[in-house]
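Appendix B. Raw example, untouched.
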Amino acid sequence: MAKTLMIIGGGAEQIPAYEKAKKRGLFVVGSDLNPDAPGMKLADHVLIASTRNAEDTVRQALDYHALHQIDGVMTIANDVPYTVACVAEALGLPGIGQDAARNVTDKLLMKQCFSSHDVACPWFIEIGSADKLRACLCAEPHTMFVIKPVDGRGARGVLLIDSTVDVEWAFEESKRWGDSGRLILEKFVPGMQLSTESFLLNGKCYTAAIAERNYDRLEQFKPNIIEDGGTIPAPIDESMRRLVDDIILRGATAIGIHEGIVKGDLVIDGNGRPMIIELAARLSGGWFATHQIPFATGVDLVSAVISYSLGESIDETLLLPSRAAATAIRYWYPPEGCIFAIRGEEELQRLPGLISYGFFKKTGEVQTRVRMHPDRFGFAIVGAETREEALCRIDRALATVRIEVES
């Protein structure tokens, strides 16, 4: 009989995992609170449970497992490693364990693990009140800080601030976007930011690709911090790549992850030293693992995670790049207002090197002020043989589409 894979989450970015699992002949169980989520249409069986409600997801998985054996559980582009870990432990399946999952989903716990294991990361402190925030900012009036919920996601409530900010507003604005209400303050470290996707296997870190994260719009959206895509390859040398592998391996070990996928957000400080901003125990969103990495390097991390989740052996050579191409992803940011026309889509589809694109809104809907990643209008991904050509192609792709709004 075919093995059964449970995929937690049924959103648009989870679809590639469903497609690959079905192509491998697996029986797929999907879980999502929304029965009409696009991934659910590809599932052989559907469990209706919030991806962030570990207890309910475990209960339903156990009930189904009693009737039909589940052989593996995973997610992609969904920040719910704790739910995945709980299901894996309840069913005796491969996974990172609940303790590691707690560490990776609580940014304060994560940073404390880094600190206790001498893993470089920006200075941090827990913020429990506006008064404490004010004291920290006033102590270093010329320093930029980042405040964010310890359990936030999608850049919700992530603010770039200094001593000139309205402290009461910043505290309450950041707090309202987290589930627990707990906040962490970090020093903002200027420097090139990197996005990585690595697989840990047999004590080694295999980083399939390193992208330079694009923050050209930092001033435009300040105090909100909005990432405007990224570019593979990042302009770093082999020595820096080795340092990146080393710190990801040490950072993952510090939080209790020894095997499987690890997504990294890093910054290279003024001394040329990589520092970990955050790690995540999941395949990344933003079409990084599903579209960009396969094009740029030939590495199929989605298949690797499926195999790992099912307890199958993984050939290390499949984690090594087989090509060296380039990709770039960027987003559209029309003015606020009601969208009455989207022009240039057919021309966009004819552009050389276009890998994928998507619009999150349609005519008649409202483009809101951009405060978090879900507020972006849409994206385009292009590929090329060189980084320079990829950057030229993404500029052309963005310019091709015109979003007209009524303010």
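End of appendix B.
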